Amino acid sequence: MIPFEYRTPKNLKEVHATLKEFGTDAKLIAGGTALVIMMKQRLVRPSCLVSLRSVRGLNGIEVKDGGLRIGGLATHRAVEASSLVRRRLPLLAETYHHVATIRVRNMATVGGGLAHADPNQDPPPTLIALGATVKATSASGSRVIPLDEFFTDYYETLLKPDEIITEVFVPRLAANSGGAYLKFLPRTADDYATVSAAAVLTLDKNKKTISDVRIALGSVGVTPIRATAAEAVLRGQPVKAEAFAEAGEKAKEAVDPVSDFRGSAAYKKDMAAVFVRRALEKAVAGIRQQARAKPAPKAARKTAKKGKRR
Ligand SMILES: Cc1cc2nc3c(=O)[nH]c(=O)nc-3n(C[C@H](O)[C@H](O)[C@H](O)COP(=O)(O)OP(=O)(O)OC[C@H]3O[C@@H](n4cnc5c(N)ncnc54)[C@H](O)[C@@H]3O)c2cc1C
């Protein structure tokens, strides 16, 4: 590795000052799981590493406006293990659980993962399907970027060199909503996905019609891809196997994977259709199961009791 300076600012103000001092020659480092590899391969050669590890107050997970606010420095493991996340958004905990191994998840941070912007990563499709936003902060203020606009190319995002991801916000799910994330792993359990798909659906109160849906895929293009044409096929439609299959075909048209050791481009396209269909089916099954598991409202329970006594 080439020599570099290492700075350990204690707060955001000091981070901004160090970034200003070194300009585009500086690189933030959080968990280091992606950056150190890139430095060893000499793909990046920063003259200064600005460590975020001593910056306090950026690793919390809390409820905000009914949704979840996750600090940019929260680790993947913290999201996966958080009782708050598991209770309110189990899909998110499950998705972070899919990342690599526990050793990687213990170090890798939510902000570092999103800034790294590898299209094969697991969290982005789920976060896009959940309608998440990213808060980017610089010395001149903060801005909020919807995650489905955040990724621009291989390892490229809308972040400016002086911006730090301080927070990810996942809005509250509407009633009768649920989701699924599926990672196709034909090689080993800790590999990156060959294809991944996330779907978040909202059904009407009878659980028969799709009121809203968001679908996103990973490993099938230069960025994670939101499958808007597939979503359009489903909105307002009854829950039917044919509609899910049609949405899968629409998603297939939207992706543009490369052939590599995980599969040919043609195979990945076919798998995109299959995994979108399966994610939709799993999401609907989850919503219906949740509805069955919920205790009936008090009035309904009273009527049922009376009926039994007769
Ligand atoms: C062996 C291995 C297997 C893996 N397998 C998977 C997998 O199966 N699925 C998956 O999803 N991922 C996988 N990953 C990738 C892993 O998710 C990323 O390495 C990790 O998310 C990066 O987070 P980090 O905190 O370590 O980032 P770092 O390595 O510290 O930084 C990555 C990039 O983000 C920038 N950065 C860091 N923090 C911030 C911030 N708060 N704001 C702005 N920019 C920031 C850095 O400057 C750098 O450019 C794997 C990684 C390894 C090493």
Structural topology:
Layout lengths: L4 E3 L4 H11 L3 E4 L5 H6 L7 E4 L9 E4 L2 E5 L4 H6 L1 H6 L1 H8 L4 H6 L2 H7 L6 H7 L3 E6 L2 E6 H4 E3 L2 E2 L6 E7 L6 E8 L10 E9 L6 E9 L6 E2 L1 H7 L6 H14 L10 H29 L4 H12 L1
Helix pairs in contact: 10-11, 11-12
How many DSSP H or I helices? 13
Strand order, sheet with most strands: 4-5-10-6-7
The amount of helix comes to: 25-40%
Percentage of β-strand residues: 15-25%
Question: By helix and strand content, what is the structural category?
Answer: alpha+beta
Overall residue-averaged pLDDT value: 94
Number of strands: 14
Summary tags:
23% strand; 13 helices; Enolase-like, domain 1; Uridine Diphospho-n-acetylenolpyruvylglucosamine Reductase, domain 2; Uridine Diphospho-n-acetylenolpyruvylglucosamine Reductase, domain 3; alpha+beta; binds flavin-adenine dinucleotide; 310 residues
Structural overview:
- With 310 residues, this protein is α+β, with helices and mostly antiparallel strands.
- It folds into 3 domains: 5-51, Uridine Diphospho-n-acetylenolpyruvylglucosamine Reductase, domain 2 (2-Layer Sandwich), CATH 3.30.43.10; 61-170, Uridine Diphospho-n-acetylenolpyruvylglucosamine Reductase, domain 3; 177-293, Enolase-like, domain 1 (2-Layer Sandwich), CATH 3.30.390.
- It has 13 helices and 14 strands.
- Helix 11 runs antiparallel to helix 12.
- Residues 27-35, 52, 72, 99-100, 104, 107-109, 111-113, 115-116, 121-123, 159, 164-165, 192 line the site of flavin-adenine dinucleotide.
